[in-house]
Amino acid sequence: MPPEETLADWFHERIDEATGDVLLKDAQALREGLTHDEDLSHYDFFVKACFVVPENSLFVSVQFNGLPLECRETFFALFIEHRTIAEALAAGLGPEDRLRQNAQRGLDAAAGINPRAPSWREVADDTIGPWWAQDDAFDGVPEDSR
């Protein structure tokens, strides 16, 4: 019987391979024009935790999982595990400017913001970007819908 460390390494390699296969399948589906898989449980994290519309879940999954590991680790540390900035920096996710940049990239990807599109932060038109960033997002029900 192999040593426990060798078995653990082998097991982690199989998990990494399986994860890679799923990510490749998602990327291929997105290239073929699909918006999401029939089985949305694959995207539960993005749909439930990040409030992504199910039809956008494949795009968000591919964008987020395509980020560098450090961006994903920063996102999870700050927004899922609710670590403080000091804790994230102590965990090696810094320096602070890199932590901030990685957090922003993770948030944008989890929100479904296309990194190749013009940044909604730099566009004067308030109809571009996430709904919560628009000037009238919290003004109430529009007059014409009453």
What can you see in these coordinates?
It is a single chain. This protein is mainly α and 146 residues long. The chain has one domain (4-117). It is 53% helix and 0% strand. The mean pLDDT is 80.
Estimate what percentage of residues fall within beta strands. Answer: under 5%
Largest sheet: none
Count of structural domains: 1
Order of helices and strands: HHHHHH
Give the low-confidence spans: none
Let me know the number of strands: 0
**Shape category:** globular
Number of helices: 6
Class computed from helices, strands and strand pairing:
mainly alpha
Mean pLDDT: 80
Radius of gyration: 19 Å
Tell me roughly what share of residues is in helical segments. 40-55%
How far from one another are the termini? 71 Å
How is the secondary structure organized here?
Elements: H1 4-31, H2 44-49, H3 57-65, H4 69-80, H5 85-90, H6 96-111
Helix pairs in contact: 1-3, 3-6, 4-6
Features:
globular, single chain, 0% strand, mainly alpha
Task: Write a brief caption for the model.
This protein has 146 residues and is mainly alpha-helical.
